[in-house]
Amino acid sequence: MRKSRFTEEQIIQAIKRVDAGMSAAAVGRELGVNEYTIYRWKRKYGGLEINDARKLRQLEDGNGRLKRMGRSEEHTSEL
After folding, report:
1. If we measure between CA atoms, which residue out of 28, 26, 24 comes closest to residue 6?
2. Lowest CB count within 10 Å: 38, 51, 61, 78, which one?
3. First to last CA, the chain
4. Each residue of 64-76: pLDDT tens digit?
């Protein structure tokens, strides 16, 4: 999975600015991302605090590692 250019803190701050009344297009222009990206972030991180977002990232990373381990285990059992 590709690493994001933005940290969870930056993403949540951007979402809070949109929630405070700033347009998603204006926030996107400042950050150099598409307006749709702001809405995607809002769907994923909306309502989360910074600590919650960090926990979510750790869980996603852990799940990815487990999936990779499972795939490699499947290949070795076929031999």
Report:
1. 28
2. 78
3. 28
4. 888 888 877 766 6
